[in-house]
Each structure stands twice: as C-alpha cells, then as structure tokens.
Amino acid sequence: xxxxxxxxxxxxxxxxxxxxxxxxxxxxxxxxxxxxxxxxxxxxxxxxxxxxxxxxxxxxxxxxxxxxxxxxxxxxxxxxxxxxxxxxxxxxxxxxxxxxxxxxxxxxxxxxxxxxxxxxxxxxxxxxxxxxxxxxxxxxxxxxxxxxxxxxxxxxxxxxxxxxxxxxxxxxxxxxxxxxxxxxxxxxxxxxxxxxxxxxxxxxxxxxxxxxxxxxxxxxxxxxxxxxxxxxxxxxxxxxxxxxxxxxxxxxxxxxxxxxxxxxxxxxxxxxxxxxxxxxxxxxxxxxxxxxxxxxxxxxxxxxxxxxxxxxxxxxxxxxxxxxxxxxxxxxxxxxxxxxxxxxxxxxxxxx
Length: 352
Hints:
Elements: H1 4-26, H2 32-56, H3 71-93, H4 98-104, H5 107-118, H6 126-143, H7 152-171, H8 179-200, H9 208-236, H10 238-245, H11 248-259, H12 266-283, E1 288-293, E2 296-302, E3 322-328, E4 331-336
Antiparallel strand pairs: 1-4, 2-3
C-alpha cells in the first residue's frame, strides 16, 4: 500500500504546526483578526506567484484545472473554512479563556473524522478509531492547562471547529484539481475578506518587517500546508488525512521547546506517546478486500498504473504524469487500498 499520502499529510501537519509558535511571536504587535487575514493573504499571494511563474515559464500542465462545476464547492470551502471558521474563532476568543480555547480547537480533527465517517461514509474499523482517538487525546492533553469551562465563547469556538471540519470534507470534492490553484484562491479571497473586516473593526497594518514575516509564515504554514493536505486527500480520504493532520499541535509544541526555550514537560512526553501510538495504529492499517469500481469518467493527474489503462486521443498531453479527462471501465479486483480518488466505494462486508 502506497505511503505517499501519509508522507504528504505528515508534512502538511509539520508546516501548519510550525506556523503556530511563530505566529504567536507576532501576535504581540498584530491583532488576532488582522493576523488571521495576513496569514491567509500570505498563503494566497505566495501561491499566486508560483502559479504565475508556471504560466510564464510555460511549464506543461500536469494537474487538472478547476472547472465551472467546481466553483460552488470552492465557494463553500472558502465560506466555511476561510470566513465562518476564523470569524467564529475571533468572537469565541473574546469570550473565553486561553485554556478552554486551546483545548476546544482540537475538536477540528474530531469534526473532520466524524463528518467523513457519518456523512461521507468513509470506511472505518476499530484500529483506525483507536488510532484517531489516541492522536486526539494527545492533542487534548497537550492543550490542557488545568481547567476548562463551557460558555458562550466555547460554543463559538466549537462552531469554528465544525466549520473547518466541513471545509476539510468539502475540499475532498476538489482534490482531483490543481491544489495550488485551490489553495491560492482560498488564501486570496479569505485573506482579503478577513483583512477588510479587521480594518473595519479598527485594526491596522503592522510595520513592513512584521508584514513580511506574517506573509512568510502564512505562505508556508497555510499555503504550502494546504497544497500538501489536498494532495494527501487524493491518497487517503478525509478521515485519515485529518487524523495525521491532528499531529500538528505536537509539532508546534516541540518547535517551541527546541527553538523558543519552553520547558520539556511530562505532559508533552505523555502527549507524544499517545500521538505515537495513534500514528502506529494508522501506519499498521491494511485494508484489503475484493471491491468493485463502477464505470467512472473524471479528470486528474495520473500515470498509467493498474487503475489507468485507457486509450488516448490525438490531443492528449504527452509524457507522464499528465492530466486529461478519461474513462474508467467497470473493474472488480482485490488489493490493499485507502479511500482515495478511485476507492470511495461502500463496504458490504467487513474487510480484512
């Protein structure tokens, strides 16, 4: 079973987790709302430069572009994850303490997995469930600071996590398209809107040096991280990608210990052990059974593996990997697989 998706998801978590301690360093001079906008805007502008350079250099397109049919899904992704989520978080932070907020933000992973399993019927077994909750328990322990209370602010933060869980699941609908284009548009639209709202609320832009620093953190921690997250969705499905991404708080904590002088606590070590157990349970997964691929026509980046044995028209792009619209004939076979682009089928019996 390919480990490409796992590596992509872990790299995504590392970049996002690393962005948290560095964003905290900037928060003293930048308001939280303006910071959220600048991080998204940095992601959008950075990826826009990459997108433009590919066009200027006339690099052959190996990814499927976003099509008109994708735009409603993209709009919902931006609305839920780029606008509603940060807005609820900002209002929630103004009504609740730091301990409650840190702990509640881990609900995003649970919301992502729950929606994927319940609404989108992704396959789950006991090993995956135990692994997911071990990772989330580690993230929760890492955030715990002695006490937490449920209040109006906590409800708003929980709502933000649900919005991001919806965002992650809806992004799966777009995962066959160019991830740079997806993350670029999300960053530009969400960043511009959040900056505009922050300015309307009385905020102001920071000094040029802080502006560049926030943009760089956003480009790597939000832009490149989202590109890798979308690529991981292709290979793993939403629930598994969300589980690996839940390791981000531990990454951020370790960076804070290594570079920012924070103490190495027993809580951090226990949290790391729980997350390591969850990671091992997921890595040890082997999902294999006879399954049926229904006839399907779609467009995405691919090479000619066992799932892509099709003929090409005269105008098909040369070389591999490449992207063009192609048809899959009905196929029944057995092999180890994840719920990737070609394995989003129902399960009539318990797989081994």
